[in-house]
Design goal:
This is GEVED domain-containing protein. The chain has 417 residues and is mainly β.
């Protein structure tokens, strides 16, 4: 099982088989994690030999079938109320691209056909992107108000399919839910928040254009175990339009200066997190940590973000040292291969705070007005410099304790929201 997304975060579920002393044994084992570019990326951007591997140790122990009551912590078990009245869909909401959104609000006293095709509701989505889907159920007929929050979500399961290849069928591979939060104590208990992943367009398994999207609500497995099988299912269909978004970043025509030879020693500063939220559901979320005593520079240009002019987006950088240091950011807005000190530099303005031996820096990245000098709808190099010495607060040719990283920022022509 695998999960994919453009934001740098992967949620996977791994299954440990039963111990049989042949294929699975008790004790410590090596676990290997590998990261490489996807087949979709290689098809569109060409071959690359990039890969990263890490190994960890896991200890597999048998699960006890019976436990003495006083040796385990008490676990709260939900007591599902068995009812013939299942929760009904009353809201479906998706924020899309190009000023589109899908918002279907149906009150419980409105009767719609069993077919429930609502193709007049349409939303535009980018390929190779993750979107949030919110589904709210009306469980007022099933539960009293004090029980609704605890049990409504737990008794239902929501799925989303998209007919990506337009073959008229919803295959198992076209189930788009890669993360589901069905029980969230911070929001109402009748709300399901899903994340759906739209794969890259390959003209075979995923095609550009309009597609049917099917949403279904059924009784959850926990409900069926306690209350017996039920044939309840509510289905709605909508229309989604999938459009491409270029994922390749090409700086081959530009030659940038070297940031210099920053070094990092044990106990010295090292960046452990870079986060920048942008438009079109894009986000740089880099949690890589590297501490080199030779050249502490990382080209992370494969991580990209989309920004609009006149919008201030927060950039948060975390370091493994709580001593105040210098953090500076440059964006090559006009794509001339250099970083201008007067027009392309962003500073953190002393927004620094500490948290248990870690330091955090808040910056506001404000893209200026688009003009003939600043290139639009193209990738731009963003350089981050963390340094101790005031003399090293420059984008090139430094020699100090610190770190340098490069990322990619796309400037959009207009705001989509």
């Amino acid at each position: 099982m695998h999960s994919r997304g453009p934001r740098g975060a992967y949620d996977l579920e791994i299954c440990t088989p039963a111990i049989d002393d042949r294929y699975a044994r008790i004790g410590q084992h090596r676990m290997r994690l590998s990261l490489m570019v996807s087949d979709d990326y290689r098809k569109q951007c060409g071959e690359t030999d990039y890969s990263e591997t890490r190994e960890y140790m896991v200890n597999i122990v048998p699960k006890a079938i019976c436990e003495v009551t006083h040796t385990i912590s008490p676990v709260e078990i939900r007591n599902i109320i068995c009812s013939e009245n299942a929760g009904k869909i009353m809201l479906v909401h998706i924020n899309g691209e190009l000023e589109t959104q899908l918002r279907d609000e149906t009150t419980t006293n409105i009767v719609i056909s069993d077919n429930r095709n609502r193709h007049n509701f349409a939303v535009t989505l980018y390929a190779d992107a993750v979107y949030s889907v919110r589904i709210q159920l009306d469980c007022s007929r099933q539960y009293d108000s004090d029980l609704r929050q605890a049990d409504c979500n737990f008794a239902h399961h929501v799925n989303v399919w998209i007919d990506l290849n337009d073959d008229g069928q919803f295959d198992a591979s076209e189930n788009r839910v890669y993360h589901q939060s069905s029980v969230n104590t911070e929001i109402s208990g009748d709300i399901h928040d899903l994340q759906i992943f739209i794969p890259i367009i390959d003209d075979t398994t995923t095609k550009a254009g309009q597609h049917r999207m099917r949403l279904s609500v059924i009784r959850s497995e926990a409900y069926r175990r306690q209350c017996g099988n039920t044939d309840h299912v509510e289905t709605r269909e909508y229309t989604v339009k999938i459009i491409p978004r270029k994922i390749c970043r090409d700086f081959s025509r530009l030659t940038y200066c070297s940031p210099g030879n920053f070094i990092c020693s044990t106990g010295s500063s090292a960046i452990f997190s870079v986060q920048l939220s942008g438009e079109q559901n894009s986000m740089i979320r880099d949690e890589m940590t590297r501490c080199s005593s030779i050249n502490n520079y990382e080209d992370r240009s494969h991580l990209a973000d989309y920004e609009n002019p006149h919008r201030q987006e927060p950039l948060l950088v975390g370091t493994n040292c709580n001593l105040a240091q210098n953090l500076d950011v440059w964006v090559d807005l006009n794509n001339d291969g250099s970083f201008d000190e007067s027009t392309e530099r962003f500073s953190y303005n002393d927004q620094h705070y500490d948290d248990n031996m870690k330091g955090y820096y808040d910056l506001s990245i404000a893209i200026p007005e688009i003009d003939e000098e600043n290139s639009v709808n193209k990738p731009h190099k963003m350089r981050i410099i963390l340094s101790r010495d005031e003399q090293s607060r420059q984008p090139c040719n430094n020699a100090d304790y610190g770190e340098a990283r490069d990322y990619t920022v796309h400037i959009l022509r207009k705001s989509y929201y």
